[in-house]
Amino acid sequence: MSGGRVRIYEVGPRDGLQNEARVIATQDKRRFIEALVAAGLREVEATSFVRPDRVPQLADADALLPSLPRVDGLRYPVLVANRAGLDRAAAAGADAIAVFTAATDGFARHNIGMDVAASLAAFAPLLVEAGSRGWWRRGYVSTAFGCPYDGRVLATQPVEVALRLLELGVDEVCFGDTIGVGVPSQVADLTRLALDAGIPVERIAYHFHDTRGTALANVAAALAAGARTFDASTGGTGGCPYAPGAAGNLATEDLVYLLDGEGYEHGVSLDGVLEAARLVSGLLGRSLASKVGQAGGWQPPEAT
Predict the structure, then answer these.
(1) pLDDT tens digit string along 32-86?
(2) Is 300 among the domain residues?
(3) Number of separate domains in the chain
(4) Residue 73, in any domain of the structure
(5) For the chain, does the N or the C end have fewer beta carbons within 10 angstroms?
(6) Is residue 97 part of a domain?
(7) Is 1 inside a domain boundary?
(8) Pick the catalytic residue: 6, 221, 240, 256?
């Protein structure tokens, strides 16, 4: 398992912060994103254009997005759920969006108030409009390995939803281990089934949570199966509200350390990510939970 190029898709500013009780000021979110960009990250999911009363932490999306630095090759996808969100995103200068559904009806109903079929029908005109604007489009398929309401999830379920999202025009599908129950054999099975169904590997991404300590093992399994795009959250922030006290998202610094050690190219500086991780931990008022955040990187001593 070594060699090749891997994309790191940073979700810290959106998924990492959205459930935090401590409100982070807009200028501090901008500082965090600037630190991520300085570290070499080129896909940073910046915020959500959803109802402010539902996600008050991200109520400043209209002010935040236009204030962010723009450089060639840098993308700031934003989450949208309806036409009002799409219009707000357009007014703020968005050029990339993500929509969010699930592999299970139970999770979709609890999160977005409709079953999977209804969510896909609702997203169809949004994706068409975004496509007509030339925007990049991503589709999340959450609960790809297990659901807090519907239980065990067969690999066929997320693949079927992913195929439908691709038919609707998304450029990429992202399979999410929302409650952190997936293990490497499931990741290998899902990847194989997706490829067999005709989904190009370059249009597959994974979003792992480290709830039960399996995130990096799942990354390794996905890499072995051919996947090359992974979500991560600097500082390991975020996580699943259905598993109180659990670890959060896969930490970007942990992912970068693994990829560096295995010889993959990705363009992200571990030192830079650690700086950004320390910044966000200070803003949240707590210590870093990630392994590399606690131990740091490692350079072997010179032989004497």
Answers:
(1) 999 999 999 999 999 999 999 999 999 999 999 999 999 999 999 999 999 999 9
(2) no
(3) 1
(4) yes
(5) C
(6) yes
(7) no
(8) 240
Nearest to 120 by CA among 137, 101, 103: 101
Task: Give catalytic status of residue 240 as yes or no.
Answer: yes
Domain, as residue range, for 204: 7-295
pLDDT tens-digit profile of 132-180? 999 999 999 999 999 999 999 999 999 999 999 999 999 999 999 999 9
Residue 134: give its domain's CATH number: 3.20.20.70
pTM of the model: 0.96
